[in-house]
Amino acid sequence: MAVLPALFGLLLVTVVTGQNVDITPKEAVRRAGDDLMVLCKVPYPIDSCRMTVGGKSYRLIPSNQDEEVVYSGQGLQFGECGAHIKHIREEWNGNISCMLPPKSGSIEVTGAMRLLVARAPGNPQLISPPQSTFKEGDDFMAQCIVPDGRPAAKITWYLDEVQLLAGVHQPIITSEPGSDLQTISQNVSRSLTADDNGKKLVCRAEHEALDGPKEAARQLVVHYPPKRLEAGPITIFGLKLGAEGRLNVSLRANPPPAAEWTLGDVVLAPPAADESRSVVALEPLHLGGGYYNITLVLTRVAKEDVDRTYYLRVTNDLGREEFALRLSTMDEPAGVELETGAIVGIVIAVLLLLIAIFLVVFAKATDRWCFAGRSRDHTKSSGESDTESAAGQKSRLSALTARVRAALPRGRDRVQAAAPDPEDNKTLAEDKKGVIYAELALGEQNAEKPPPPSTEYAEIVCTEQSPQMKESKE
């Protein structure tokens, strides 16, 4: 019989220890002096609440709120065992565990979370190639190391104020045996360009224990040959004959360039002047950031100066660049600047469009090419063209007018516009038995005169011939 209680007790222990404690949060990072809320919860009432913080066990009672670690939660009857840690100490870094015994029995369940008490890392270290200058196209690699942080610091790379994303390698985190402090290192690599010259490469470290980020940086010095800012020949506009003229050329170079002007058979290396041609070559002016302005001054612009082409050669240790310049007394054209090829293409396109429009109008007017079939079809369907129809109508109208005029008697009395006397109605009716009224449309109208306001009528009188006249004709 003693076996049954033992089995029951073993079963109870298995059930209780199998319970999962819901603990929030499961991990937290806090600075020393910050506070933290930890809540452990089970789905049944508990008898008490105990919390272990930094190796020290605290029995938490809801009514006691005066200690540095006090109870937090809705109550033991709801299965909640929470702790409010008011001021975190650095030595409390590690696990925080909670014990929740049930109302009946001596078996209690436990839960644990990880507390990282943040510790500021050391200053970031930037390791890069030892040389002071680089050339355009060189492969550059640097490493940033931020030591002894808890947890590891976060590294971000910048080139001046622009964050670098390309060429950034995965960070590596290491720690010394037996130490919870972590060291992070990260590499960055890139192919240097002329735009990198003068910029500052920055390794920025951020950490929870720092009030602000810490940085390590070095400035990049990149050498490259002279580079023009615009392609093709250069035209200087707005010059006036007899006045001073300046030929300015802007370019990029590092190290500083040397200039040489060529005017026909004269070569000037700044600073230099040619009194016979009244020209002065000025030294290259550094505008900053590797940009230079090179100027040739003409004391008085003459007509032969406008017709001449000026040549400028700029060199440094890495290469050279050549420019051809022309002068113009016209104002610089406004709007978008187009190259010669683009202007020629636009002119050709406009000419082709005008030719196409002319050919379409010509073909339609002369019934040629694609319009020839339409004209023939229209002629077949109508039987005659508009010109032939108009001519036929005109000829038929003229013939009708001639027949009417021939049928009218010359000596016959015409009907008067006034109304006839009633007594003469019978006689008038007898006289008009052979009268026919015809409405005539005038075939020809004078373009300078308006059409008649009313319709004109003509009388066609048919007279009966006497027997004597018929016999005489026979």
Care to describe what's here?
The protein has 474 residues and is an alpha+beta fold. 20% of the residues lie in helices and 37% in strands. The chain has seven helices and 31 strands. The protein has helices at 3-17, 303-307, 340-366, 372-382, 386-407, 425-431, 467-473, and strands at 22-24, 27-31, 36-41, 50-53, 56-59, 69-72, 80-85, 94-100, 109-118, 125-127, 134-135, 139-149, 154-159, 162-163, 172-175, 182-191, 200-206, 214-219, 222-228, 234-236, 245-254, 258-263, 266-268, 272-274, 279-281, 285-288, 291-298, 309-316, 319-327, 435-439, 457-461. The strands form seven sheets. Strands 11, 19, 21, 24, 25, 26 and 27 form a seven-stranded mixed β-sheet that branches. A five-stranded mixed β-sheet has the order 2-9-8-4-5, with no helix packed on it. A hairpin with a 6-residue loop joins strand 15 (172-175) and strand 16 (182-191). The protein is elongated and about 130 Å long. Mean pLDDT is 80; it is low at 1-18, 380-385, 411-420, 422-429, 434-449, 453-462 and 466-474.
Rg from C-alpha positions?
56 Å
Low-confidence stretches: 1-18, 380-385, 411-420, 422-429, 434-449, 453-462, 466-474
Name the shape in a single word. Answer: elongated
How many angstroms does the end-to-end distance come to?
172 Å
> How many runs of DSSP E, i.e. beta strands?
31
Q: Main β-sheet, in a few words?
A: 7 strands, mixed
User: How much strand content do the residues show?
Assistant: 35-45%
Q: What would the average pLDDT be, to the nearest integer? A: 80
Percentage of helical residues? 10-25%
Number of helices: 7
Structural class: alpha+beta
